[in-house]
Amino acid sequence: MTDPWVALEPGADPAERARLLRRAHETFTEVGTVPQPVRAVVADSWRRSARAGVGPDGTASVELGDGDLGSYRAEHQLARVMPLFRELLGTFAADGEHLLAVCDAHGRLLWVEGHPTTRRRAGLMNFVPGARWAETAVGTNAPGTAVALDRPVQVFAAEHFIRQVQPWTCAAAPVHDPRTGRVLGAVDITGGDGLAHPHSLGFVQAVARAAESQLALLAPVPPATDTPELTALGRDEARLTADGRRIRLSRRHSEILVLLARHPEGLAGDELLCALYEDESVPPVTLRAELARLRRILGPGLLASRPYRLTVPVESDVSVVERRLETGAVTGAASAYAGPLLPGSQAPAVVRLRRRLADGLRTALIARRDPDLLADWAHAPWGEEDLDVWRALAAVRPTPAVRARLAALESELTAPAAWQRRPPP
Question: Which Gene3D superfamilies does the protein's record reference (predicted)?
């Protein structure tokens, strides 16, 4: 069975495939349909690129100048594994006239190294350190799409959304924080058609896994603790780590644990019912059934009743962010914030907590006026349309790309709605 993440199946003619892809790309940009032989992963990426407003004749913008770039990447976790990347990929890149590139979780290139001639060619399309190659900025490309999908991917020729990138082929794999599982960025190999081979994708994936192993060895050993830990930020289904087990919870069970962790004194059944359900007609027996299932999942002794409560303290990533904000540790709070709390939840109490936490952090970021922290929020999925943050970022980092994005946002958010534009009957 052909691997859908590999650009060319065995025996395929690269030149013929590139010609067909160019024709398919033109069809998509003209009429919006995706013909064969475009892979599903690429077709989906093209559609996301179009929805993000990326044009096929666009180009990447350099967002981090030399000063900002140097300090930012010096503090980035991936700086610790750059020697490993260079050892495993650097010689391959130089000998094959390819490039080794590393981006952060927002698709910003931190390092681009390799063959000098290839680097000069890549510089013509702003494939340079400091440039943003997120999928939402420049469309389909291996490092940006790998970060967007959180999985290794190969992009060949006219599978790239922007035309000036279509002479290139690249393969990239995300790199995760071994402790939290968060995406730190991606490692990428970029060059010619010869990279459109399963081995290049497997190679870059192996390098990413080696980097994660190295980070795990370099990470400080956390002190031994028996305190259960609840991870609920940026996830629709929370994860509880307790007694050496990692338990993935359903959405409803995630909501229950988040609320009980915040109320160690416990909640009465009617309080928990109102906190979880918008519909006031939901009977108490529904909640009792959910709690019975949760008790079986957690095991004996952790969940008590009358009132419903956790029998031991549970440390949550929500409380970590809140404590750091309370003490003024804004950078630490931002680093611990992996995204909105249970973003798909509609439980009234969870919605209120989600809004309060996000508003508190973004307010602190705006007040701090740190360009890197503001940029991280603005380029995250939850901050891409945050007008106040983009205005704050433009005030401290007024690059052309930031000003252009701000202008587009102000135009979109202040334009009258369609019904307001209709002439009176």
Answer: 3.30.450.40, Winged helix-like DNA-binding domain superfamily/Winged helix DNA-binding domain
